Amino acid sequence: MLDDRTTAETTWPTAYPQGYAVVDVETTGLARDDRIVSAAVYRLDARGNVEDHWYTLVNPQRDPGPVWIHGLTSEVLADAPLFADIAEEFADRLADRVLVAHNAIFDWQMIAREYARADSQAPVRQRLCTIALSKELDLPLPNHKLESLAAHFGVVQQRAHHALDDARVLAEAFRPSLHAAARDNVRLPLLECRPLTEWSDAPATPRIGYQPSYRSVSWRPSRKRPPCPYPNPGRFEEGRPLKQGMRIAFSGDTSVERELLEDRAIEAGLHIATSVSRLTSLLVTNDPDAATSKTVKAKAYGTPIVDEAAFTQLLRDVAPAD
Q1: Number of domains in the chain
Q2: Strand 19-27 relative to strand 36-45, pairing
Q3: Do the domain assignments include residue 258?
Q4: Interatomic CA distance for residues 110 and 166, integer angstroms
Q5: What is the CATH number for 162?
Q6: What's the 3-state SS for the chain?
């Protein structure tokens, strides 16, 4: 495992952040109207050394969701503080640091929504996804699960899906990752954290088992995208650039916000397809082995498949339409 002596012989990259907040949140579910039920933060210094840690339960004011995963029942959460009650202390833990999480877009969006509900904003400007970092380092992982990253660095998980232990495991795995990146002068995959600017409360349609008094919140309204002005030139071919007019489909989670990826593709002159057909030029997915309808169809049609990192590189040099 790497330590300070490993990187002492080389100059620590001056562009690297001065501090990190390794975060894990457990939630009532994965949807946009779900709530946080517990949160943990490990604060790290510039070289990934632990400064302190913090943990809290949060009363979601609704059914706690998958108790069989996080173990937090309605009885356990009944006397827990509301998010608004812990928002200031949570913010103190995040302030002036890069938010680090495993699949960081999920944790960031859950946190951003909670702060929006509390009529506030989280003091976070950048995030770093450890999945994206492991790809930058080309770590030989069998998959992108936290347990695989932990096993690679010899970190022992004690209570999976407990926010404090997940955050500890991630902090312990992030430190050697950070030192490996510094040793090889790898550019950290930092992304902007944008606070929510469009938000509204609306009566929810109660889900089975959920308290009917709960009011859900909506995310951004769907946007109607302009039609692509270029004809479809056909399928993407490995070793050649993307060409304006190509039909691009996405499947599964992405480390960069999907909406932002789609915006970049459209600005480059590509067409965003909502499904996969014989006309689809390329499917972008970080999990090509997942049996989603899009990946199944892509394989049946022989549609080329690349991951998010490769697609981001291809976006840098899109060939003009004929």
Answers
A1: 2
A2: antiparallel
A3: yes
A4: 16
A5: 3.30.420.10
A6: CCCHHHHHCCCCCCCCCCEEEEEEEEECCCCCCCCEEEEEEEEEECCCCEEEEEEEECCCCCCCCCHHHHCCCHHHHCCCCCHHHHHHHHHHHHCCCEEEECCHHHHHHHHHHHHHHCCCCCCCCEEEEHHHHHHHCCCCCCCCCHHHHHHHCCCCCCCCCCHHHHHHHHHHHHHHHHHHHHHCCCCCCEEECCCCCCCEEEECCCCCCCCCCCEEEECCCCCCCCCCCCCCCCCCCCCCCCECCCEEEEECCCCCCHHHHHHHHHHCCCEEECCCCCCCCEEEECCCCCCCHHHHHHHHHCCCEECHHHHHHHHHHCECCC
* 137 contacts: CB under 8 Å, gap ≥ 6: 177, 180, 181, 184, 186
Residue span of the structural domain in which 302 resides = 247-317
pLDDT by residue, tens only, the chain of 322 residues: 445 554 554 589 999 999 999 999 999 887 777 899 999 999 999 999 999 999 999 999 999 988 988 999 999 999 999 999 999 999 999 999 999 999 888 899 899 999 999 989 999 999 999 988 998 999 998 888 899 999 999 999 999 899 999 999 999 999 999 999 999 999 999 988 877 755 544 433 333 343 333 333 333 444 566 788 999 999 999 989 999 999 999 998 776 667 778 888 888 899 999 899 999 999 999 888 888 889 999 999 999 999 988 898 898 888 998 8
First to last CA, the chain: 52
CATH classification of the domain holding 307: 3.40.50.10190
Q: Is the pTM of this model over 0.85?
A: no
| CA dist., res. 83 & res. 73, Å (int) | 17
